[in-house]
Amino acid sequence: MLSTTARLLAGLGDLAALSTRGPGLCEVCRGWGAGALCAACIARYAAPQPRCGRCGLRLVQPAPACGECLRAAPPWRHTVCVADYGYPWDRLIAAFKFEGRVELAAALAARLVEAGRAAAAPLPQALVAVPLAPARLAERGYDQAWELARRAARGLGLAAPVAALQRPLDGSHQADLGRAERLRNLRRAFLVDPAQRSAIRGRSVGLVDDVLTTGATAREATEALLRAGAAAVDIWVVARTPA
């Protein structure tokens, strides 16, 4: 028999699921629609764009790799992203990350699922979230990447190993740093839990985060997964910061 706490949590989960399916005001246009993003705004702001297959930067024509990736290929195989980091995604992601709007995870993850299904690359075998540092997690109260990863994994029928990738040490906030500083701040910042290596070893893994900017975080996290035996790593993000 379920405990009172378990029943309460299950009920809250049911309410959250209903809130993503039922009618409501669109977060962008404030029009009446289903879920947090209406169909018109999804069509307008999440339309597929030609991109570099490796880093996800927007291009005039789609290409397996842009000039920069041809010169210095990132360690990951492919990037899936919904849109460029700009209106309305910058506002939605900021509300999701910094204003406690966890309910936006469902709408953002749904867009990520659609982008993943439409991508030229095959789906990974598991999705893993880029973890927050302990102090950041305590401050925020939730890990936005994990909220995205678990919902996207459920939508795709994939595994989402809990806490497979860990970030045991705190560092400076990445948003406040330039690319070189980000790389120094993140050096060997990530590791794979030894108890979870079997969920990673030999499998293709989708690494989920909200935004891909310089690629410093994605690079360090990817290398940690590859050291743990991942067969390949793809980056899955809601938004890609333009060059």
Which helices and strands occur, and which strands form pairs?
Elements: H1 4-21, E1 23-25, E2 32-34, H2 39-45, H3 67-71, E3 78-84, H4 89-98, H5 104-118, E4 126-129, H6 134-140, H7 144-156, E5 165-166, H8 179-186, E6 191-192, H9 197-200, E7 204-212, H10 216-227, E8 232-240
Note the main sheet. Answer: 4 strands, parallel
Number of helices: 10
* Number of E-state strands: 8
In the predicted model, the low-confidence regions spanning at least 5 consecutive residues are 1-21
In sequence order, what are the helices and strands, one letter per element? HEEHHEHHEHHEHEHEHE
Instruction: Indicate the overall shape.
Output: globular
> What is the typical, i.e. mean, pLDDT?
86
Report on the architecture of this protein:
By secondary structure, the chain is of the alpha/beta class. The chain folds into 2 domains: 1-45, no CATH class; 48-240, Rossmann fold (3-Layer(aba) Sandwich). Helices cover 41% and strands 16% of the residues. The chain has 10 helices and 8 strands. The chain has helices at 4-21, 39-45, 67-71, 89-98, 104-118, 134-140, 144-156, 179-186, 197-200, 216-227, and strands at 23-25, 32-34, 78-84, 126-129, 165-166, 191-192, 204-212, 232-240. Strand 1 and strand 2 form a beta hairpin. The longest helix has 18 residues, at 4-21. The radius of gyration is 18 Å and the shape is globular. The termini are far apart.
